[in-house]
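Apologies for my clumsy wording, but are you able to produce some protein sequence, whichever is easiest, and the tokens describing how it folds?
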Amino acid sequence: MAVQTTSDHPRKLAGYDFYHQILGSPKFIVAPMVDQSELAWRILSRRYGAQLCYTPMINAKMFSPPSAHAYRAQAFNTSCLEEGSSTHDRPLIVQFCANSPSQLLTSALAVQDHCDAIDINLGCPQDIARKGHYGSFLMDEWELIHDLSVFLSLFDIRILIFKANDVSVGTVNVLHENLSVPVTAKFRIFPSVEKTVAYAKMLESAGAQILTCHGRLRTQRGQNTGLADWSHIKAVKEAVRVPVFANGNILFHEDVEKCLRETGVDGVMSAEGQLYNPALFAPAPSGSPSSTLTGAHLPHADLALEYLAIVKNLKTPTSTSAVKGHLFKIMHPALGRETDLRERLGRIRGPNVVEEYIEVAKEMKQRMERDAAVAMEGGQMIDDLITIEPTTGLRVLPHWLSQPYFRPLKSPIEALKRASSPIPSHEDVKRARLSGQSAVGDTDISL
């Protein structure tokens, strides 16, 4: 069978041409999150302002074998004609973790007709990434990362020879030039701005057409998450010529504009903040009962029911673990008080899980409407019901509304040492006391 070369494809757009003409100049971006940025969640997110979504991180080693039918169906299911389709799921970037250029290319070729770009995960800081030798644990292997990027990029290279995991790869021009979509990269910062910038420029030179900079170190995770450092992100943006997305410190809708303004980036990506409030990118609706909240904080039970309706109506299966994870996060503000519903959610098993989840969400909706009616019966506004959490100084909304969740660090002083804000405002100092609860996924947590 004849192999199609790049001369048979339309010219592949790059950099800002790609960002504007193919992606539509997105500013609000949903991060790649394992078992959490699945198709149903991406559809919900787009309804509430998300302009670009990433798939969950896919392991190229597991995805690349031709016999990997079960894993492929689970990770990126194209057989139902919904995932990656122009009607349901665009613009879309598919993210892979990999340490083998050949496995990465094989995987990318399998999905390139169902997405707008391929992203390389260079940011996952979790132990599984350490064991698998991918994500942020490739940060010290610049030559390999360069090769991973170049292998997918479209350069005028006749022969590319390198070593990856002691396997020599050569004469790959035909496959190298056959990838019809651009390559992008998501990475974490180094302790020094200079090294972070040098790393970003290396990725750009290797062919990455968009760079997403998560402003946290590899060691900043879990209880030690702390603040993302926007000064690194700003420096990256000023040093490269391709579009840059910022990741980190996004709690409320107003943080998005603040990040765009202070870093100069082209778009803002959110992971965990958007998981707890899927309407994070949406402005407050007209006639909103709050004058201080610029973003949408909708009743979380309504969002849960809307998500479940999407899951139910899709032909593409959604994993039970993804659904359960979303419901626990969306309805988190009330599950601490509605303990019977929390226990019911945790116990649900069997073939009719979605219907049972819907029943729990409906019961939650009834209780939240009851609580809201009682709380506001005296003509109070939402602003009157917002409180300040004493140890963090952050706003706590009424428990029936979607909102960010964070847990205090053991040592706020250590949080400030680990990470710094570009301009440490009063609000930034408050944020430094907080750590994001791990979201399953790319799992480099964004606030």
